[in-house]
Amino acid sequence: MEALFYIFSIIAVFSALMVISMKNPLTSALYLVLCFFTIAGFYVILGMQFLAAMQVLVYAGAIMVLVVLVIMLLNLSKIKKIKMDLHQIFIAGVIFIILLAEITIYIINGYPKKPTGIYTHALINKIGNTQILGEFLFTKYILPFEVASVLLLVAIIGAYLFAKKKS
Amino acid sequence: MSINGYLIVAGIIFCIGMLGVLMRKNLIVIFMSLELMFNAANLGFVAVSNYLNLIDGDIFVIFVMVVAAAEAAIALGIAVAFYREKATVDIDKANELKL
Known about the structure:
Distance between the termini of chain B: 54 Å
Distance between the termini of chain A: 58 Å
Largest sheet of chain B: none
Strand content of chain B: under 5%
Number of strands of chain B: 0
CATH architecture of the largest domain in chain A: Up-down Bundle
Shape of chain B: elongated
Strand content of chain A: under 5%
Order of helices and strands of chain A: HHHHHHHH
Mean pLDDT of chain A: 88
Structural class of chain A: mainly alpha
Helix content of chain B: over 70%
Oligomer: heterodimer
Number of helices of chain A: 8
CATH topology of chain B: Helix Hairpins
Number of domains of chain A: 2
CATH class of the largest domain in chain A: Mainly Alpha
Number of domains of chain B: 1
Mean pLDDT of chain B: 90
Low-confidence stretches of chain B: none
Shape of chain A: globular
CATH superfamily of the largest domain in chain A: NADH-ubiquinone/plastoquinone oxidoreductase chain 6, subunit NuoJ
Order of helices and strands of chain B: HHH
């Protein structure tokens, strides 16, 4: 588990760096798929197989297919010519270093909180994590679940309105 | 593996995503960096939820995925509309509000 964690984290950070540094957006998209797969691997290590499956199906499958399809619709040779501004990169790098230092200091200095819930690793494996997620989703979180369906409807209508030609 | 490792990896990926949003000018790559930030936040949720023996964080990840899917449809629709208007996806060309 320990070794797997280190392998996954190295691949995840490397592919995330490649996503933002590649000139061709299609290459970035493929590296992003790699990053999503490694994050699915993290979920499996943490004992959440259902979320790993959702990660692969929804993110690496549906969303990335959408992105690649849109890249195909646009003119790739024209997109590749977009230049980066050196001044902007410098400012972004400074903000990156400051934010990373803040997060690291915050995580290292935070005092450990005691586990409060009852859903230990053994219990989740005994009941099955798909069943447990389903029970929570349809009892305690039923209102957000319904609101999410309305949100998806709004997204369908919005995407149609944005993408249609002006008559 | 202790929880700190997962949180630090999530933090690094989040910062890389933010760097991409700030320094790239291609609308599609900015969108992909946003997805990277969503995923880093998801990883943090799952790690903390696993550490505290709770399920609520995992449920929240599902909702984040729903919002990300809706956002993907809208954002790529905007990208296509923008390309149709300007024949490019360079965000520096979106300067109609400039005086």
